[in-house]
Amino acid sequence: MALQWMILAYVVAAEAGVAILLTLPSPKALKSRIVSLISLILQPSLFVVPFSAFQLLDIYWKNEHRLMCSGEICTAAERDRYEKSIYKAQRNAVLCVSACLLYWCIYRICKYHRDIQSMEEVEKRYKEH
Predict the structure, then answer these.
(1) Where are the membrane-spanning stretches (predicted)?
(2) Of 22, 45, 90, 92, which residue is least crowded by CB atoms under 10 Å?
(3) 38-42: long-range contacts at Cβ-Cβ below 8 A with a sequence spacing of 24 or more?
(4) What digits encode the pLDDT tens for the residues 97-113?
(5) pLDDT band, very low/low/confident/very high, at 79 (cuts 50, 70, 90)
(6) Residues 22/106, Cβ–Cβ less than 8 Å
């Protein structure tokens, strides 16, 4: 696995861990601190979206320009190598899509939590008056 795919795999694993951490039930004070910390991290970690998009374009380009190995002219080893490259490309595409989807999920969870906090503050102000 090349370096960029290892990095993307670790980013996806970290995003999955953060998404689980955000969705676990926890006390309100702890949850708001966790969400504020994750919100601060979200902006710099936006790099994952264009990075994944670039990797998807690379997968597409390689797929379009890959030598086809079908028929009687290919040996068994060539056919195995071709199938292995197809499986790797599919795995890498799933990794790219997962990275973008998890980033979006984390962003939306943080946004919903901030919206809920602001609505609770408005409700508290209405109750005080």
Answers:
(1) 6-25, 37-57
(2) 90
(3) 38/106, 38/110, 39/110, 39/114, 42/103, 42/106, 42/107, 42/110
(4) 999 999 999 999 999 99
(5) confident
(6) yes
SS (H, E, C) the chain: CCHHHHHHHHHHHHHHHHHHHHHCCCCHHHHHHHHHHHHHHHCHHHHHHHHHHHHHHHHHHHHHCCCCCCCCCCCHHHHHHHHHHHHHHHHHHHHHHHHHHHHHHHHHHHHHHHHHHHHHHHHHHHHHC
Tokens of 23: 């969705």
* Contact yes or no for 9/91 (Cβ under 8 A): no
Rounded to whole angstroms, the Cα distance separating 85 from 77 reads: 12
Residues 52-78: pLDDT tens digits?
A: 999 999 988 988 887 777 667 788 888
Q: What letter represents residue 55's amino acid?
A: Q
Our CA angle for 119, 106, 37, nearest 5°, is 75
